[in-house]
Amino acid sequence: MVKGFSRTQIALHWVVAVLIVFQLLFADSIKPAWRAVRNGGTASLSTMAWAHILGGILVLALVVWRLWLRQSRGVPDLPGGETGVMKMAALAGHWGLYAIMIGAAVTGLIAWYGAIPAMGEVHQMFQPLFYILIGVHVLAALYHHFILKDGLLNRMRQPQD
Ligand code: HEM
Ligand code: HEM
């Protein structure tokens, strides 16, 4: 059993977190090009539209790396003193975040490179899921920090290589 997250795991968590926020805040940039594709035309991509595509591909690559590290190196157990329900919620939340990160990137790629409007609709549905799961995730982290005072936030700040 490992004592904590490694330097690489922590760096990946924060880089991916920033990338996801970027993807959510600047997604409108790809819409004009997407409209052109849906109307059967060719799309000219702005720099920010390219950033949405490359950002999404980067998220996918980094999440696969994270999952591989999770498997090969391991992650610390959830902090003790939690009820079974809280553990289940944490597991569901973390796996839910991994699932939507992969789901959003893959549906985006299929929609774009396959020029498939229906997949664009599926891709859009990830937006509210991100807001809900990230919202709960951040609130849970703050609850641990300020109410339970169990030092959970430090686990994503102080590497245990
Ligand atoms: C201010 C924002 C954030 C804070 C304070 C935060 C905090 C944390 C903390 C403390 C953990 C470690 C939990 C543990 O020790 O078991 C964690 C894990 C995790 N976070 Fe975040 N996080 C933030 C943003 C995000 C975002 C935006 C995402 C992705 C959309 C994300 C995805 C994850 C995932 C998937 C894990 C599970 C890691 C694993 O065990 O494999 N986090 N986060
Ligand atoms: C995890 C990575 C990604 C996230 C979080 C994300 C997020 C989003 C969001 C929030 C929207 C706006 C939805 C709306 O306003 O209704 C959007 C639109 C779009 N994204 Fe992504 N995206 C990601 C990756 C990608 C990738 C890799 C591609 C293409 C290679 C892509 C292509 C598109 C397209 C074509 C649209 C327009 C869809 C439409 O309006 O129907 N996305 N994305």
Keywords:
161 residues, binds protoporphyrin IX containing FE, 74% helix, mainly alpha
Could you explain how this protein is built, in words?
- By secondary structure, this protein is an all-alpha fold.
- The chain contains 7 helices and no strands.
- The protein has one domain.
- The radius of gyration is 18 Å and the shape is elongated.
- The site of one protoporphyrin IX containing FE has 19 residues, from helix 1, helix 4, helix 6 and helix 7.
Q: Give the tally of β-strands.
A: 0
Globally, the shape reads: elongated
The helix/strand order is HHHHHHH
Contiguous runs where pLDDT drops below 50 for at least 5 residues? none
Report the structural category: mainly alpha
Major beta-sheet overview:
none
> What small molecules does this complex bind?
protoporphyrin IX containing FE
End-to-end separation in angstroms reads 13 Å
Helix content: over 70%
Percent strand equals under 5%
Average pLDDT number: 94
For this entry, what is the oligomeric state of its chains?
single chain
Rg, Å, rounded: 18 Å
Please specify the SSE layout and strand pairing.
Elements: H1 7-25, H2 31-38, H3 47-72, H4 84-114, H5 117-124, H6 126-148, H7 152-155
Helix pairs in contact: 1-3, 3-4, 4-5, 4-6
Bound molecules: protoporphyrin IX containing FE (2 copies).
One protoporphyrin IX containing FE is lined by residues 20, 23-24, 27, 30-31, 34, 52-53, 56-57, 59, 101, 104-105, 108-109, 111-112, 120, 123-124, 127.
